[in-house]
Write a structure and sequence with these properties.
Distance between the termini: 33 Å
Shape: globular
CATH class of one domain: Alpha Beta
Structural class: alpha+beta
Largest sheet: 9 strands, mixed
Strand content: 5-15%
Length: 797
């Protein structure tokens, strides 16, 4: 689906009917029949001027972000131009055909998802119904409108009531699931529309605060009382009808909290807080940090299951708990009312807290310090936090580049799992089919629950050549998926082309960089911003020019799913397309510019070639710098979805013996557009503006997006040795489909009519990428190609 800046959404088809003729002559005739009579010969010179003006105007409106105007112009192509340019005629006809069919598929998917919602409600499963309602939301033209539907309103109110009930009863996992879904459906409104009504924002703020509290409680319980937490998860599974095969608790597969907290003392607690107060970008004060630490300390006594653990038995004594809670309440009141809270006052408060702990519940000091320290610093942003002694070695390995893993970028999921932001292409994880938005629920049989990101990295990485087993939950796939992923040194090729022509004996591909040979449009897919990525891109450019025997008329730079990388690489790649001007600035507190990165004329290798940049929610960090800078300088049209919003710089500062504080000190700001200040990339809490908004937004319902990713993944395995890997293939030699039910089998639990129209029966390995455009499987790329064909037609005689 395609959206303009004024929220008008128009469909781009995910499928081209097989009956449509591929004959350029026939298609040109069809276009002419719709567009009107061919101009007379004596008006030829006038037509040339009209056609050039039309092409230029389409491109200019796209650059300006006027998607409605751009789309309107595409429906008014000059007749003479379509006759003289058959590729343009084909692309326009295909585009119009696909738009119509896309709308039909979206409506069919919406109907399918609504049926599931009603079925869940009839079966007394309101939480599952809300989960399916979120699927409905991905197909809705106006996500906010869905929240006014009477069924949706009633369902949301019911789940809100259940969430409150579960919280009161201490049923942490059920409460967290319900709140996560509630937050997701309201977040869908803000994310898609970029606007946040006060009522919606108020709900989201409430849900996020409650989720943070629940998340801390679950994290504490999962680390310090793993057996008890396992029983809680089993109870939850039983309530969902999934308890029969729930595994028994295995103490050998859980983290030992004593090892995790070894070497932690109270000294780094204040030092790390002081570093954040003096250095953090947002200039926090001591008061909120202390309040967050005290609230977290009090949460220890709200976990009766934790009190059954020997080392935390003091929490089972009502008198000791009362003393503990009264002391914390008193400290919170004093901090709240104190007109001046500085380092000296913070030291007094933390000293009194630790002293009270010794006199009352006797929580192990390393555990208490770790939890309240983590809570305080991570309350500032997702990337600020402590690096405790147990984590230092791993952190140093990662920063030094000595990394052995499976090739995924991860972050915390709000429901407690580990969310895959993006698998690195050609990494072990990517080759086995792990995808963006997959949630890792267990590692080597250990439930991740609310592991920190450091915990997850520590357990997923390991010795080169070893294997790690991941259980993964995928949206809209009922059963957990299991992957046995080999660990290896991650050396991912950063630049890919449109399709693989062949592979050498070692499996190294030879790429075809041509997206459209007739119109001379090139295609570069950048997977990461490594040290030599700009050199790899120059090599790809030179090969493309050789394949065309000339420079291309336009190129597509695909940054979808690119998690980022080095700032220097992003600057160099931007410079390839940009002759001069600011690429990005780094700002410290108060908006002071600490660094400005410029484009240099000698770095402008690609000249003025027209560019379309593709982005999506997985485009982060360096991807946002490149796309945002080219957009700001009106050097490229950005097409796709709003980007991730990771635009911050962290420094690591010592905070005591073998302990460090990683603190966000600067934010990236994109170049200014006209008189407007440059956009801040980073997504801050409750922000309305972040990342890069495309000039032309092309979005896909969830099922269609999964289909697009699957076809590209299979295409990139073309001619790969892994085609014969029995772990990757079904018996028939195809990739294992997500939905294998037989539409002719009456015993299937779900009849064919109840399937999503996007369900993939099978996608063959080595999938022909040309079909992604011909069959409308990648509408963003289809639109980019059409736009560049139009732009190139301006130069034709």
């Amino acid at each position: 689906m395609l959206r303009s800046t004024d929220s008008t959404r128009l469909p781009i088809s995910p499928k081209l009917p097989h009956g449509l003729s591929r004959s350029w002559c026939l298609v040109a005739c069809l276009v002419l029949a719709n567009l009107g009579p061919v101009a007379a010969a004596d008006d030829a010179s006038s037509d040339v001027r009209l056609e050039a003006s039309w092409s230029q105007e389409v491109w200019s409106e796209a650059l300006a972000g006027n998607a409605d105007r751009c789309l309107g112009l595409l429906q008014q192509a000059p007749a003479g131009l379509t006759v003289a340019n058959p590729p343009l005629a084909v692309a326009l006809q295909q585009y119009n055909q696909n738009r119509s069919l896309a709308e039909s598929e979206v409506l069919a998917d919406r109907t399918w998802a609504w049926d599931r919602v009603e079925q869940d409600i009839d079966e007394g499963q309101p939480v599952l119904a809300l989960q399916d309602l979120i699927r409905v939301q991905t197909t809705w033209v106006d996500p906010a409108e869905l929240l006014n539907d009477s069924k949706a309103v009633a369902l949301i109110e019911e789940v809100e009531g259940l969430a409150a009930k579960y919280e009161t009863e201490g049923d942490l996992l059920k409460a967290r699931q319900a709140l996560y879904l509630l937050n997701t459906i309201y977040d869908g409104v803000q994310t898609r529309d970029g606007e946040d009504a006060s009522s919606t924002k108020g709900r989201r703020d409430e849900y996020e605060q409650r989720l943070r509290v629940l998340g801390r409680k679950v994290q504490i319980l999962s680390l310090y009382a793993p057996a008890q937490f396992h029983e809680m998860r089993k109870d939850w599974a039983v309530s969902l009808g999934e308890g029969e095969d729930f595994p028994d608790f295995n103490p050998n597969t859980v983290l030992d909290w004593r090892e995790v907290t070894r070497g932690i003392t109270e000294v780094p607690l204040l030092l790390g807080m002081r570093r954040s107060v003096t250095s953090h970008m947002d200039g926090p004060s001591w008061r909120p940090l202390l309040m967050e630490a005290l609230r977290t300390a009090r949460e220890f006594s709200s976990l009766p299951r934790l009190a059954t653990v020997d080392d935390f038995s003091g929490l089972a004594d009502p008198e000791k708990v009362a003393l503990w809670e009264e002391a914390i309440d008193s400290l919170m009141t004093s901090v709240e009312l104190d007109p001046r809270v500085d380092f000296r006052r913070a030291r007094e408060v933390m000293g009194q807290l630790l002293d009270t702990n010794t006199r009352s519940v006797q929580i192990p000091t390393p555990a208490l310090v770790k939890e309240i320290g983590d809570a305080a610093l991570t309350s500032l942003d997702d990337y600020t936090g402590f690096i405790w002694p147990d984590e230092v070695r791993r952190f140093q390995q990662n920063t030094e580049g000595n990394f052995v893993g499976i090739g995924v970028q991860i972050r915390k999921a709000e429901d407690g799992g580990i969310l895959v932001v993006a698998p690195l292409e050609e990494s072990p994880a990517w080759k086995l089919g792990i995808q963006n938005k997959d949630v890792i629920v267990s590692v080597d049989g250990t439930l991740v629950a609310d592991w920190s990101l450091n915990d997850a990295v520590d357990r997923i990485t390991g010795t080169e050549g070893s294997t790690v087993r991941l259980e993964v939950r995928r949206p809209d796939v009922e059963e957990l998926m299991v992957f046995d992923v080999p660990r290896q040194r991650i050396e991912i090729p950063s630049v890919k082309g449109f399709q693989i022509l062949e592979r050498d004996e070692d499996g190294k591909p030879t790429w075809d960089w041509r997206l459209d040979s007739e119109s001379k449009i090139g295609y570069f897919r950048l997977n990461q911003f490594a040290r030599n990525s700009h050199l790899d891109l120059i090599k790809a450019w030179n090969t493309l020019c050789s394949q065309f025997d000339s420079e291309p008329s336009g190129v597509v730079l695909d940054l979808r799913g690119n998690p980022g990388g080095l700032l220097e690489s992003a600057a160099a790649i931007t410079n390839l397309f940009l002759r001069e001007g600011t690429v990005v600035t780094q700002e410290s507190p108060g908006g002071r510019i600490e660094r400005r990165v410029w484009a240099r004329p000698d770095g402008n290798v690609f000249g003025e070639v027209p560019v379309v940049v593709l982005v999506d929610e997985g485009s982060a960090s360096a991807s946002e710098i490149v796309s945002g800078a080219l957009q700001a300088h009106r050097r490229a049209v950005v097409v796709g979805e709003r980007t991730f919003g990771k635009g911050s710089v962290q420094t690591v500062q010592p905070a005591g013996r073998e302990t460090f504080a990683k603190i966000t000190e600067q934010y990236y700001r994109l170049p200014s557009i006209g008189d407007q200040p440059g956009r801040m990339v980073h997504k801050k809490l409750n922000a309305k503006v972040w990342g890069v908004d495309p000039q032309v937004e092309v979005w896909l319902p969830e099922g269609a997006e999964e289909r697009r990713r699957g076809t590209w993944r299979m295409s990139d395995l073309r001619y790969a040795p892994s085609l014969n890997d029995p772990e990757l293939l079904d018996e028939d030699g195809t990739d294992a489909p997500e939905d294998v039910s037989d539409p002719e089998d009456d015993s299937s639990e779900e009849p064919a009519a109840a399937k999503s129209p996007y369900a993939i029966e099978e996608v063959e390995l080595g999938f022909d990428p040309n079909r992604t455009i011909e069959e409308g499987l990648d509408p963003a790329l289809e639109f980019a190609r059409l736009l560049l064909i139009v732009r190139g037609s301006e130069a034709q005689p």
